[in-house]
Design a protein that fits this description.
The complex is a heterodimer of chains A (249) and B (759). By secondary structure, chain A is mainly beta. In chain A, strands 1, 3, 6, 7 and 8 form a five-stranded antiparallel beta sheet that branches. In chain A, strands 2, 4, 5, 9 and 10 form a five-stranded mixed beta sheet that branches. In chain A, strand 17 and strand 18 form a beta hairpin. Chain A is globular and about 65 Å long. The N terminus of chain A is likely disordered. Chain B is mainly beta. Chain B contains three helices and 47 strands. Chain B has a 26-stranded antiparallel beta sheet that branches. A five-stranded mixed beta sheet of chain B has the order 9-14-15-12-13. Chain B is globular. The chains are: A mainly beta (249), B mainly beta (759). At the A-B interface, helix 1, strand 1, strand 9 and strand 10 of A face helix 3, strand 20, strand 40, strand 45 and strand 46 of B. Strand 10 of chain A pairs parallel with strand 40 of chain B, so a sheet runs across the interface.
């Protein structure tokens, strides 16, 4: 008896605790996503200047705050080649702040060094490369990591493009009822015929399922609110984002 | 809450005490059988029977004036009451309250039923409950009479959880039907009902085993160092022995436990040498819990549903023969839980984490025990065993069905008191079907990411033929008994052979003490999943554990015994996850410690024990790593259990359990994975199991009141389980980005009322 109740309490706490501390609600420095250009790279070649990939990283940040960014090396993983900190170069002057109603979206760019082809030989010349950044804002910090793909020359994967997401409901700058449950819906463009991962972020309220492209949003009180829709390609590591603002009254 | 619990307990006690007085006064009456036919009879017939069962009581002394007679085998006696004058008929019998009935009650003469109440138990009356057993080192055998007094839930099989060397983990979540033995994982132990192998003997909820208490004879538990008759286990072995005796009369028991389950049991003799027993039990706690939590989650604004459930059924036919018996048993049980909670870390398409887990088995076996000649006895138990486990956990699915034909056969030759030579053969043929929907492991795919890999459904059917042969013999060297033995096993799935030598000895030291020791190798085949072609590694080999045990058993007097043991267990070739080969034999474990067991033997009034286990359990994933605490390490475990009979109808009992908090790996760092849009913890191997939950305490108090009617009886048991004044932490969880740790606490103690009857 004891064990099952402990087990039940585990689930109860799981639900209760997360109800009060929800991932979709932005109330501190938080990663949103990243995208590399090109999306899929060719490996560097020995004796030639290393190939570079430019990554753009998006984060959410409370209004009025600023960030600093430095390279970060994640812990070892067998599924990706880890970039050393000196292979990650944050581009100076690329940190930009875009203010919205509830928070600001900060983005920055960095150059990533593509490892040489020999690293990818065990997997037929293709593989993943992991990069990372340590973003600080006062006492807050966020470690953001991501992978990009490397394929040999002439591979069809080199032409992969990022998926796209468009918020259909509600419409940008529209007005909805405050403190009520409204439908939110996004349309997706899947250019690589891959599994897509949807993610919703809001400044307030509660989203029933932040992974569904159609779900419900319990809106916050009267005011202007920011709604972010993101999509990721599970194979391509592509990323798409749309940010809209909604009035609630 | 604490005050309410105590109020509940003592007010129930008070009400029943009041009721008790009235019931006794009413029940002590004699009943003329038939008024019309007694007026002319000079002699009365008295039928003396036991109150509560109606069984006739022979050899009851009946005194009328100066004349004394005794009842015959059917409980009857003839008495002559003086036609006039006052006086008493005095009825007395050992074990029963003496009864005096006025002459007037027997006038006019006739046939009278008189029921005697059982006497208040005597603490000097030692009840002998075990006979001669095979000499073992770490075995504890507990009779049903003993274990029903103190076992959790009153279920005799649960007594194992109170024995030294056994851990029940509060943080492992969900698997309430498992135990950890001397630091070995739950899957490392084996469970048997007689010679029928079963996948579990405990239901997940309600402190209930898969067999009703009425069927059980004794519970036998080996914490380690066991003989070669048991194989494929590196932890412990639990065997429930069922009854083989023929009941004197048909008997029906019922049980209503609020809020957990109900059951009915019936046994009846079919002839002098045969009997049939049937029982069925089913839970309904799922309906209660669902309603309670439904209201809670509505308040919390969530959407939580949880449905635990279980059931079991049994049919046992026993036929006594001249040299043994044939017992045909059909045992079926299921145990499951369905749960769904809003979750962000484990959400499915609907934003909920869903768990659906059910395990069921059906075992049909025929146990034949007989004699070949004066010296040799045999036991063979051909059996068909079907096991089905179906687990769905947030998108991962595993269904495994196993059909096993097994014919364990053992020959034993008595070599003297407590000495024998055994030879056994245990062949089995298995057909396993697996349907697995799990991560499609594609290390050759450059886009493969195990943290978010796609799922793939694979169905497989595997046929295997395994066979084990074993032998052991007790050899005397002076007063010392040495038992060398060996078990050889061939596992056709991994296509490997194991040969496990084992040795144990017992050396009496005077009349009170016995020194005992055991050493042996124990092999365990990897699970079918671990060695499967699709999801595991078919090159795996046996996991091998080496047990070393040294102990001192002392019989202080008739009432007190103790057992002190030190143990060391070394596990090699332990199966661990491997990033390249899925699973490998690179792991190892070690467990060591000491156990103290002080037992107050069963008397008419008191029974109980104190067990203390000091144990360390450590493991590592490869020989390059240092040993670290395992997830099963609970350094100190204390169990104090006792039961006291106040009167023949009133019994009080209590249990106290303490264990060091479970280990867990703290999460001190996390990263945001931009590809997966989720946070991932970053723990270091050096931090594995370095944190502990707070120590765990649980106190259970219960009382049982028996109501005796003329030919049947009823018992009301009430109390509360797992109470402690402070909140008990049983696990930790983290929020979505691991920035906040949340303690998982146990629910408050739940009072229970259980009504049972014997018809």
């Amino acid at each position: 008896m004891k064990k099952i109740f402990l087990f039940l309490s585990f689930l109860l706490l799981l639900s209760c605790s997360e109800d009060k501390d929800r991932q979709e609600v932005i109330d501190k420095l938080r990663g949103i996503g990243s995208i590399t250009s090109p999306l899929v790279s060719t490996p560097s070649l020995i004796g030639q200047p290393p190939e570079k990939v430019e990554v753009t990283v998006h984060l959410a940040l409370p209004l009025g705050k600023t960030v600093t960014v430095e390279p970060y090396k994640d812990q070892e993983t067998f599924s990706a080649i880890l970039l050393e900190e000196d292979q990650i170069a944050v581009k100076s002057g690329t940190i930009k702040y875009a203010p919205y109603a509830d928070f600001q979206v900060v983005s920055f760019k960095a150059d990533l060094t593509v490892p040489i082809a020999e690293f990818f030989t065990p997997l037929g010349g293709a593989g993943q490369v992991r990069y990372g950044f340590l973003v600080k804002s006062g006492t807050d910090e966020e470690k953001v990591i991501g992978n990009f793909l490397v394929y040999p020359e002439n591979s069809p994967e080199l032409s992969w493009t990022s998926p796209q997401i468009t918020v259909e409901k509600p419409i940008d700058e529209s007005t909805v009822k405050a403190e009520s449950e409204i439908e939110i819906k996004a349309s997706l463009v899947n250019s690589n015929d891959e599994d897509l991962l949807v993610g919703w972020l809001v400044g307030g309220g509660e989203i029933k399922n932040r992974r569904a492209k159609e779900t419900k949003w319990k809106t916050p009180g009267v005011g202007k609110n920011t709604l972010i829709a993101t999509v990721r390609g599970k194979k391509s590591r592509g990323f798409g984002i749309q940010i809209i603002e909604i009035n609630t009254n | 809450m604490h005050e309410n619990l105590l109020k509940y307990f003592f007010s129930t006690l008070l009400i029943l005490t009041w009721f008790d007085t009235n019931v006794v006064a009413f029940a002590q009456q004699v009943t003329p059988k038939d008024d019309s036919e007694v007026s002319v009879l000079p002699v009365s017939v008295v039928k003396v029977r036991e109150k509560g069962t109606g069984l006739p009581l022979s050899k009851t002394e009946i005194t009328v004036a100066s004349e004394t007679v005794f009842t015959s085998g059917n409980g009857e006696a003839q008495i002559t009451i003086p036609p006039s004058g006052d006086g008493f008929v005095r009825l007395s019998r050992s074990g029963f309250e003496t009864l005096e009935v006025p002459f007037a009650k027997f006038r006019p003469a006739g046939t009278f039923d008189i029921f005697l109440y059982p006497r208040t138990p005597d603490d000097n009356n030692i009840i002998i409950v075990t006979g001669k057993k095979r000499p073992q080192v770490s075995r504890k055998t507990v009779s049903i009479e003993e274990s029903r007094r103190i076992a959790p839930g009153g279920d005799p099989a649960q007594i194992v959880k109170l024995l030294p060397g056994v851990q029940t983990s509060s943080a492992r979540g969900g698997s309430g039907n498992s135990v950890v033995v001397r630091g070995s994982g739950p899957a490392d132990s084996k469970f048997y009902i007689d010679n029928l192998e079963v996948p579990f003997i405990f239901h997940g909820i309600g402190n209930i085993s898969v067999l009703p208490a009425q069927l059980m004879q004794e519970v036998q538990f080996d914490a380690g160092g066991f003989g070669p008759e048991f194989g494929n286990a590196t932890g412990g072995v639990i065997v429930i022995r069922t009854k083989t005796d023929i009941p004197e009369r048909p008997k029906t028991d019922f049980l209503v436990n609020i809020p957990f389950y109900s059951g009915v049991f019936q046994t009846r003799p079919l002839s002098e040498k045969s009997a049939l027993t049937v029982s069925v039990r089913r839970s309904y706690v799922e309906f209660f819990i669902d309603k309670v939590l439904e209201s809670q989650e509505e308040e919390a604004g969530g959407n939580l549903t949880i449905v635990p459930y279980f059931g079991d059924a049994h049919v046992v036919h026993i036929q006594k023969t001249d040299t043994g018996h044939t017992k045909t048993s059909l045992i079926a049980a299921y145990d499951g839980v369905k749960a769904a909670a809003p979750s962000q870390r484990f959400a499915d398409e609907e934003g909920r984490a869903k768990i659906d887990f059910v395990t069921e088995f059906l075992n049909l076996g025929v146990e034949r025990v007989g004699r070949l000649n004066e010296s040799w006895q045999y036991t063979t138990t051909p059996q068909i065993y079907f096991f089905d486990t179906d687990a769905n956990f947030v998108g991962n699915a595993l269904r495994r069905r196993v059909l096993t034909f097994r014919v364990p056969t053992e020959f034993s030759r008595r070599l003297g008191p407590a000495k024998e030579w055994i030879i056994g053969l245990d062949p089995s043929y298995k057909v396993q079907w697996s349907d697995v929907n799990a991560i499609d492991f594609r290390p050759g795919d450059p886009t493969f990411d195990p943290e978010d890999a796609e799922k793939r459904k694979v169905t497989s059917k595997v046929k295997t033929s395994d066979v084990a042969a074993y032998t052991s013999v007790d050899v005397s060297l002076g007063k010392m008994i040495i038992t060398p033995g060996a078990r050889v096993t061939y596992d056709s799935q991994i296509k490997k052979l194991s040969a496990d030598p084992r040795l144990r000895l017992r050396q009496p030291l005077g009349s009170e003490h016995t020194l005992k020791s055991a050493i042996g190798q124990y092999s365990q085949a990897p699970s079918p999943f671990q060695s499967s072609e699709n999801f595991g590694n078919p090159k795996l080999s046996f996991y091998r554990a080496y047990h070393f045990v040294l102990g001192l058993e002392t019989q202080w007097n008739d009432k007190w015994t103790s057992d002190v043991q030190g143990f060391y267990k070394l596990g090699k070739n332990m199966v661990v996850s491997d990033p390249k080969e899925r699973f490998s034999n690179n792991g190892s474990m070690r467990g060591y410690g000491a156990e103290f067991f002080i037992r107050r033997n069963l008397t008419g009034r008191l029974f109980g024990w104190l067990s203390y286990t000091y144990a360390k359990s450590e493991n590592r994933s490869s020989d390059d790593e240092p040993y670290r605490y395992s997830e099963y390490d609970q350094t100190h475990v204390i169990n104090l259990a006792g039961s006291y009979k106040l009167t023949a109808q009133w019994e009080l009992g209590t249990r106290y359990n303490f264990h060091t908090g479970d280990t867990y790996t703290p999460v001190n760092d996390a990263v945001y994975n931009a590809n997966l849009d989720k946070y991932q913890d970053r723990t270091l191997d050096s931090q594995k199991n370095t944190s502990r939950l707070p120590n765990f305490h649980a106190l259970t108090i219960y009382a049982t009141k028996s109501f005796l009617f003329d030919t049947w009886k009823m018992a009301l048991k009430f109390g509360f389980e797992s109470y402690w004044p402070t909140t008990q932490v049983v696990g930790v969880d983290y929020n979505y980005d691991y920035s906040k740790k949340v303690d998982e606490t146990s629910l408050t103690s739940i009072p229970f009322i259980e009504l049972s009857g014997e018809l």
